[in-house]
Amino acid sequence: MHDRYLANITDQCFLNLTHVLKALQDILSLSQLHCKLLKSMDEETIKSPDFQVEFTRIKSNFERQSIIVFKLLSNFKNHHAASVSVGAAPYLSRLLLRMDYNGFLSELAERMEEEKTKKLLVDYHQQITSAAS
Fold first, then answer.
1. Which among 69, 39, 71 has a CA at the least distance from the CA of 55?
2. Do 18 and 70 reside in the same domain of the chain?
3. How many structural domains are present in the chain?
4. Alpha helical stretches, state H, 13-103
5. Are both 95 and 126 inside the same structural domain?
6. Residue 90 Ramachandran class (φ > 0 left, ψ -120 to 50 alpha, else beta)
7. Which residue range is the domain that position 127 belongs to?
8. Quick one: 86 and 106 in the same domain?
9. pTM of the entire structure?
10. Could you report the per-residue pLDDT of 62-97, keeping only the tens digit for each?
11. Is 31 found in the same domain as 9?
12. Cβ neighbours of residue 41 under 8 Å, at least 6 residues apart?
């Protein structure tokens, strides 16, 4: 009975998807780093460029990993809708709704994609310019 309960919870949290599990573990690790950084904080360290760089790095990685989880689950829902067990389907829909209830992750993902595209275009332009020289 208990084993069945644990299996259901694992399925409903989509922890049986290796990439989702890995991204969630990374998010938890980043959360621990963030807490550790904040615990070490005082008036002097907050002004330190190293503190600000580390804070920004953790924040960026957290956002990236959160988007990865959201995209993995969204893609799973879109591409495997028929294969999602009847019991798990509503959990996935609810989970995605809770993750992006105000559109924050969708907006953040879109913004990151735009930045990635701009960088690719700049790199491409530089390659063409240097090849023409």
1. 39
2. yes
3. 2
4. 18-39, 43-47, 49-79, 89-99
5. no
6. alpha
7. 102-133
8. no
9. 0.76
10. 999 999 999 998 888 877 665 555 556 678 888 889
11. yes
12. 51
